[in-house]
Amino acid sequence: MTESTTTPDTADRAPLGDLAALVGEEPTVRAVVSRAPSVAVPEAARAIFVAGLAGVTTRRPILVAVPTRAEAERLSRDLQQFLPALDVEELPAWETLPFERVSPSLETMSRRARVLWRLRAGVPPAVVVAPVRALVQRLGPHVEEVEPVVVRRGDQIDRDALVARLVAMGYRREYQVEARGEVAVRGSIVDVYPATDDHPVRIDLWGDEVDRLSAFAVVDQRSTDDIDAAIIFPARELLPTDEVRERARQLLRTQPWGAEAWERLADGVTFDGMESWLPW
Fold this sequence. Notes:
9 helices
């Protein structure tokens, strides 16, 4: 998540926001506010109905549960026509099957962490859209303690400490950043691709001070737009914290059938499929 200096004041305005305000006076919307047990809303009208409801109620967030991830993605996109983008969050479900030894995508895990952080930090979105699987998905340990790394121009930052923290949050150190969840260091420059963002971020240090903060292109590695701040969320839901490592050591003694995974977790190693061991 980045904050840009070049974003115009109108960027937060939804294209069809005025229509949502008109729908807020409809009897069906008012019935929901009055806690009617059920109302019927055609599928094509769901986005404007939810946006209208968000405009007339102070309850935050409004949770919209849908059957599938495809429906959640579609409804989230539609809602952003009626509400500012920051007022709409999708809580994605894992793409993996239960006990499948494959990790969900880094973007999925990081977006889940962002939604949960916003709910806990007192900056909830107006609407959270979630497929049913996302609502019943097991959460990682200490999810309520997750904090993003926030970097702003002018901040005093220790380069090595920043990189170490990003690696502890599940980011993979590489020679050059090319994909989400990667971090690279070149002298006084730290490149990181936040798992929730559409572009990587370059942190240019002068000593310990953030001299410049910018987005850059993966293709040619050139800086593009300057930004005010970067908010970097963990790239994984299961992190090798001290408690997780101690639990893995206990499982080594009591559940030897999973020794290979327990040993890697006990050593603090990040590996593909580690999230599938959450039930233990």
